[in-house]
Automatic annotation (TrEMBL):
One Pfam assignment: GntR
UniProt name for this protein: GntR family transcriptional regulator
InterPro entries referenced in this protein's UniProt entry, alphabetically: Bact_HTH_transcr_reg, Tscrpt_reg_HTH_GntR, WH-like_DNA-bd_sf, WH_DNA-bd_sf
Superkingdom of origin: Bacteria
């Protein structure tokens, strides 16, 4: 941890906590640093503060960032743990399963971007990717400035294989 004089900024306090986890071995080289959304929820901080935490960890030489993948512990040449299925696909599979189970009904809205962000601890871009994937598969349709709704059942993926693929993705974490 760094020695400082005067009040310690919030982002530095959170970076100190994560640094302690790295030094204790709880987070090892290649492990992902908590996402901005996870920090926002776990430490009750703003998204901009979470970004400053990641920058602080990079400045301290404890982590590096790969655009679109996240921030990871250690130097950039260390192999990092990757998700086998992107989180947006896992969430989309969860929503598709809820549609299949009748929990989300045709012509009714799916959870909002804000709900997805809070519930799953993801960024807005990830929440948007969920809706885009569901649209591509035919589970939902979007009405501009209104929301995203469950498609009529006849537009859902028609083959059992398509539905199994969607549900299987949700169980691979």
């Amino acid at each position: 941890m760094l020695d400082r004089e005067g009040p310690v900024p919030l982002y530095a306090q959170v970076a100190d906590i994560i640094e302690a986890r790295i030094r204790s071995g709880e987070l090892r080289d290649g492990d992902p640093v908590p996402s901005e959304a996870a920090m926002e929820t776990g430490f009750a901080i703003a998204r901009t503060t979470a970004r400053r935490v990641a920058r602080e960890l990079r400045d301290r030489g404890l982590a590096y960032t790969v655009q679109g993948e996240g921030t990871f512990v250690g130097p950039p040449d260390v192999p990092r743990q990757r998700r086998t299925v992107p989180i947006s696909r896992q969430i989309a599979a969860d929503i598709a399963e809820r549609i299949c189970n009748g929990e989300l009904r045709p012509n009714r809205s799916i959870p909002s971007e804000k709900w997805l962000m809070r519930h799953y601890g993801v960024a807005k871009v990830t929440a948007r990717a969920v809706a885009a994937h569901l649209r591509e598969q035919g589970w939902v349709f979007t009405v501009p400035y209104r929301g995203t709704y469950v498609s009529p059942e006849e537009r859902w993926p028609t083959t059992r294989n398509d539905r199994q693929t969607t549900v299987v993705e949700s169980s691979t974490s």
